[in-house]
Amino acid sequence: MAKLINDLLSLAQMEDMSFEIQKVPFNISNAIHDVILSMEAAMTDKKIQLTCSIEPDVMVKSDPERIKQVITILFENAVKYTDEKGKIDLSLKKSKRHIVFSIKNSGKGIAKQDLPKIFDRFYRADPSRTQETDGYGLGLSIAKAIIERLGGEIRAESVENEYAAFTWTLGL
To answer: What's this model's pTM, rounded to 2 decimal places?
Structure first.
């Protein structure tokens, strides 16, 4: 229940335009590595193979806690929905004006009809799995609200029974 309340508060804050976001320069490459370290045990339990392509020392001026929250949400979902002995590919690339973060996991994927709704609050593509996978269907809506509030874009793509991929871009 505490997680649900915290998620709802986080979502409300991001949608409240009077809520000030703190933008400071920080090393997003290091933030991603921190999240990876926090997820190692879960990946080991499921024997997930992780492939990373993270440009080193990428600096971005944004809200470090909110960005780390988005990375964590997407990484937790990738681990949760990757099959045993599956694969996760993660990348961070920098261009002249923005960064591109991408995470792709093997597994069940997302049905084509569900893709347009996955960022909606409380949406669960497979309600019968709610107990099995935990959560309330708020993570992706929080991630979207944060990225959009920070001036970026997030999108998802999937091929059912193959993979799901999430990509977001953010200005430097």
So the answer is: 0.86
